[in-house]
Amino acid sequence: MTLLRREALILLGAGLAGGARAAEQPAGTARATDFAFETPEGAPMPLSAYAGKPVLVVNTATACGYAGQLAGLQTLWTRFGDRGLVVLGVPSPDFGNQEPLDGPAIAEAARKNHGVTFPLTAKTRVKMPGAHPFYRWAAAERPAETPRWNFHKYLIARDGTLAAAFATQVEPTDPRVISGIAATLDQA
C-alpha cells in the first residue's frame, strides 16, 4: 500500500471514528478520544478505547538517534501501566525519513531492539500541513509545542484534554515527565 493511500485511509478512518466530529466542534471542546489511528496491521485504533486513562502519545522512529528513548517509554509503560497509563508510539517518517519500516515490521523492530510491548500505530504523519487529525488538534491546543523532531511527547489527561507536551530532548524518565504522569494518574 502506498504511503499516500495509507494516509488517505487513516484520515478516512479518523473521520469515521470521530475525527470529523472533532473538526466540527468549537475550538477547545475536542478531546483526544475524538480521534483514531490505525494499527500496524491496518485495523482501526480509536483513542476512545483509552477513555478515562492518561495517554502518553509519542512520535517514534526506529532509525533515529533518539530511538533509545523507546526503552525509556517501555520503562514508563511497565512502571505505570497497572495504574492506567497508556504509552502509545506513533511511528512517523516526517523527520529525515528515520522510520524506514512499514506495518508490523516497525513493531517487530521496536520489540526486538528495545523491548517494546506498549501499543504502536501504523506509520503516521505528525508534521504540518499533512499531519494526522490528532496532531492538528494538539497543535491547535499548544501551538508553540508541536513536534520538531522524533520523540516529541504529548500527555493526555484522563478527561481527554492535553495536559502537557515534552520536546524530543526530554527523556521519557525525566522528572518532568514522571511528575506529569503522576499528576494525571492522581486525577479523579
TrEMBL record:
Keywords: Oxidoreductase, Peroxidase, Signal. Residues 26-188 form the Thioredoxin domain. It holds the Pfam family GSHPx. One of its GO terms (molecular function) is peroxidase activity. Belongs to the glutathione peroxidase family. This is Glutathione peroxidase. Transmembrane segments: none annotated. It comes from the Bacteria. Residues 1-22 form the signal peptide. One of its GO terms (biological process) is cellular response to oxidative stress.
